[in-house]
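Trying the structure run again after the queue cleared.
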Amino acid sequence: MEKPQEVTGPLAGRIALVAGATRGAGRAMAVELGRAGATVYVTGRTTREHVSEVGRSSETIEGTAELVTAAGGRGIAVPTDHLDPEQVRALVERIDAEQHRLDILVNDIWGGDVHVEWDKKMWEHDLDKGLRVLRLGVETHIVTSRFALPLLIRNEGGLVVEVTDGTDEYNKRYRKPYYYDLAKAAPLRMARALADELKEYGCTAVCLTPGWLRSEAMLDTYFKVSEENWLDGTKQNPHFAISETPTYVGRALAALAADPDVARWNGASLSSGGLAAEYGFTDVDGSRPDAWRYITEVDQESPTADVTGYR
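Done. Tokens:
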């Protein structure tokens, strides 16, 4: 029998659940937690045998778990539909049986982009698609927290991370269309509410957003580039120059989870760029893009872009 690899790092011995870890930010956050030594349960609906409605067979939870282990942690893939309470209950019961604790919960479940009708008014948007967006982006987070939090609060120091698109400051503006706006505002409020409810247990809740994420779909579907030549995407939109790899928000999460004073952020809206300035990590190219400050301060209609001072 092969001897398990020795796990070291600031998060060695910590148990994490990254709900929605098939691709993009979720995958990267799982990997970076593993790189820091954590045991990471990775969940999602796309496996090597089944593809979710997102329709991308190239990323699977098994693939994510393997990347977590290769990075130095221990990745455990558990196929889970987070809209099914019984599947989520079984997932948490398994973590309890195998690990007897949960230290980090990351609610990154999404998959709603395929249902968003981006140019439609609220009353023009297909109702079933709109409600599906809310189920995927809001209800999944609620169901997961409902079953995972009783395990997390058994020990002080637990961390809950709600993942969204946009900071609290930026999302005060309308993130059209209607259903997308609601789906991305909700995690900010969830983090604020859970911060209040978890405080007495010595646990912390925050909301975390990446910047302009160079996810797999953003690269190969929307801009038709690769990570190697991503700058070619600026020919289509010059402001793509402020974009960042998923690893950047993964490093943000790992820094938060390893911070013994993480409670100072309780209830806060945090971004990868803001945390990079706080903790000193960089994106894979050594830069520190601050996308939300850039998006707020720079004219997005301009045909030119200058990221000087923003990365």
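The first strand starts at residue 15 and ends at 19. Worth checking whether this holds up in the mutant runs.
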